[in-house]
Amino acid sequence: MKDAPFLNLVLALVFLVLMGWLLVIGKPILLPIVTAIISVYVMTSASEALGRLPVLRHFPSVWLRLLVLAAFVVIVLVFAYVVAATVRDIAGVAPVYQANLSRLLQNVAVMFDIEEQQLWNEIRSLTIDKISFQAILLATLGGFTSVGGMVFLVVIYAGFLLAERNTFPQKISAAFRNRESAEKAHRIVTDINRKISDYLAIKTLINMVLGAISYVVLWVFGVDFAPFWAITIALLNYIPYVGSYAGVAFPVILSLAQFASIPVTLGLAAMLTAAQMYVGNVLEPRRIGRELNLSPFVVLVALSVWGALWGIPGAILSVPLTSIVALILSSFEQTRFLAIFLAERPETMTADRAEA
């Protein structure tokens, strides 16, 4: 049939549109499940790392997973406490920030001798006088408080996934009548588990280091809510390219309103940016390298797509989700060409094809 290629293209486009629609409509259900699966990758790597320690080497794997799950719950509770404390305290300092920012801008106007000009007064009346710093801060923090219910579901799902992890190989074997198909499915799942687990484990460790360094810098400068901003920087560093700079922007802008001092703000920005550059240009390439083999352009597109579908959580999950899709595509002859277009190093795909 001459129209077969065109028909296949139309069907593929319809499928993509339907998938996008389902992802948007099903976000309240799908996002906690996907987040729990990604979290289990990190916790599995952590439990395996604990099992290599001399003290815990002889402990059953179930106990180690329970220990890691308990640590995960504690981390979630600590983060929830930090967010709640920040939201509670922000109302008291917001008016001070508003006054400091207004005074700083007035000093800048005096410096450039424009404070008496009509244009400056009109700009001030339309912008500064109408901006509520408290509303902006509470709206920003509202994005964190709104995910409280989802985090509870993530913890529950992750606990059950960890408990059933040992049964997955048997389920895969039982799902395929053909032994060859079952072995191929095992290889695909094992490859995905290894690459995603390694990436997420190292990335999480690096983000914890970045968060600790950022906290020290924020504490030295005396920035308010330093624990919250350090955690935010660590979380946003999961987002490729823009996440690290967005994480720095929040406390830097806050410091401008808190201290009303441009030199202090510039110093803070320089120190936080230096920490980000060290992590992004030295530590990450050395520890992570090119493990996931995704083209930078594909990563950027994935960031845009998943961010549009699921917001900030989607942006954080964009790299591992796209990597899973690429690994699945590369495992089948019919779709391998799509994986090659997604890859940064296509020669690795052809090498895998030759081995297969």
UniProtKB/TrEMBL annotation:
One of its GO terms (cellular component) is membrane. It is a multi-pass membrane protein. It comes from the Bacteria. The keyword NAD does not apply. The keyword Transmembrane helix applies. It is found in: Membrane. Keywords: Membrane, Transmembrane, Transmembrane helix. One of its GO terms (biological process) is transmembrane transport. InterPro entries: AI-2E-like. Coiled coil: none annotated. The chain crosses the membrane at residues 7-24, 30-50, 62-84, 135-163, 204-222, 228-252, 259-279, 299-329. This is AI-2E family transporter.
